[in-house]
Amino acid sequence: MEAPELERRLAAILAADVEGYSRLMHADEEATMATLSARRMVIDDLISEHRGRIANTAGDSVLAEFASVLDAVSCAIEIQKALVQANQDGASLPMRLRIGINVGDVMVKDGDIFGDGVNVAARLEGLVKGGEICVSRGVRDHLRHRGGMIFEDLGEQRVKNIAHPIRAFRLRLDEDASGQEILAADESIEAPAQGIEEGEPPSALAEPTEISADQEVALELALWESVKDGSPAELESYLEQYPHGTFAALARTRRDAAAEPAAPNQPPNSTAEAVPDPLDLAFWESVKNSDRPEELEAYLDQHPNGHFAGLARARLPSLRGGQGSPGQQP
Question: Is the pTM here over 0.85, yes or no?
Answer without folding.
Answer: no
